[in-house]
Design goal:
Catalytic activity: (R)-pantoate + NADP(+) = 2-dehydropantoate + NADPH + H(+)
Number of domains: 2
Largest sheet: 8 strands, mixed
CATH superfamily of the largest domain: NAD(P)-binding Rossmann-like Domain
EC number: 1.1.1.169
Family: Belongs to the ketopantoate reductase family.
Pathway: Cofactor biosynthesis; (R)-pantothenate biosynthesis; (R)-pantoate from 3-methyl-2-oxobutanoate: step 2/2
Number of helices: 11
Radius of gyration: 19 Å
Distance between the termini: 42 Å
CATH class of the largest domain: Alpha Beta
Enzyme class: oxidoreductase
Helix content: 40-55%
């Protein structure tokens, strides 16, 4: 299968490296410089301390436009989606969106493709440089249909080593489950500057963890509040030594995904006239850190 991957960040590089063994992959990057480096030097995948150089991946700058693909995977951050809409809005091939949050769903309604999927990525990935990515944590990619049938997505039936895909029946519940995890863990770790596990092991941080979850669960009207709470805790335990992506963004002076994550929850609180004191406070703290470049 010919697969196009839009986005040269950690997730884009990870997907390009993992899928290139089974498919013809073209990676579309924001800059010509990154595309040139990958075409010249290949893509380096680091796993368990070992590096592997992959040379079969073609890379192009987004300004060149997409080619003839059977599937296009969009891995850019949610706040970059508006910039690539002119490139993908008339595309007729299946599209798979891998963004955090829920706000990107509104973008999908503008697209002409008859088949649109959304997914959540539970792998850990760290971009070291323009053509090097480290697979820092094994997980799964869950995929649901926004429009069209999941039966057309052959990736769900493949057995890609250490890179599984699974089918989800309802995109809304799938995205909300991931949103709750991101909304509780990411802002708190970014502000407190701690690894994920500290949110549970430190009793004072755990009180903040509980208060934020309580407020978010009320805003989103979670149908299984206790199950959701235990799920967020389990993610903290499973990734106890990890530094969240939002904390890494703050540390490196990058724009965060706070608008895609807490921004959506705040808009829901306003729409439903729900209390949002804790969420709003954390949102302002992260935005303040972000505006100072860390």
């Amino acid at each position: 299968m010919r697969i196009g991957i839009i986005g040269g960040g950690a997730i884009g590089l990870l997907f390009a490296s993992r899928l290139s063994g089974n498919h013809s992959v073209t990676l579309y990057t924001r800059t010509m410089e990154q595309a040139s480096i990958i075409n010249r030097d290949g893509l380096c995948l680091i796993e368990n301390g070992e590096s592997r150089l992959l040379t079969g991946i073609v890379s192009k700058a987004m300004e060149e436009g997409t080619s003839s693909e059977d599937l296009i995977i969009i891995t850019v951050k949610q706040y970059h989606l508006s910039q690539i809409l002119p490139v993908i809005e008339r595309i007729q091939v299946p599209l798979l969106f891998l963004q955090n949050g829920y706000g990107h769903i509104s973008y999908l309604k503008q697209l002409q493709s008859p088949v649109i999927y959304v997914g959540v990525v539970e792998h850990g990935a760290l971009k070291h440089d323009q053509n090097t990515v480290e697979h820092t944590g094994l997980g799964i990619t869950r995929v649901a249909s926004f429009k069209g049938s999941l039966d057309q997505l052959s990736l769900l039936d493949e057995k890609i080593n250490r890179f599984p895909f699974s089918k989800s029946g309802n995109y809304h519940s799938m995205l909300i489950d991931k949103l709750v995890v991101n909304a509780v863990i990411n802002p708190l770790t970014a502000i407190l500057s701690v690894e994920n596990g500290k949110l549970i092991s430190n009793p004072f941080y755990y009180q903040l963890f509980q208060a934020l979850f309580e407020e978010i669960s009320a805003i989103l009207e979670l149908p299984n509040k206790m199950g959701s709470f235990e799920h967020v805790k389990s993610v903290c335990f499973a990734t106890a030594e990890n530094r969240s992506s939002m904390l890494k963004d703050i540390d490196n002076g990058r724009k965060t995904e706070i608008d895609a994550i807490l921004g959506y929850i705040l808009s829901e609180a306003k729409r439903k006239e729900k209390s949002d004191c804790v969420t709003a406070s954390l949102y302002k703290m992260v935005k303040g850190k972000e505006s100072q470049g860390g």
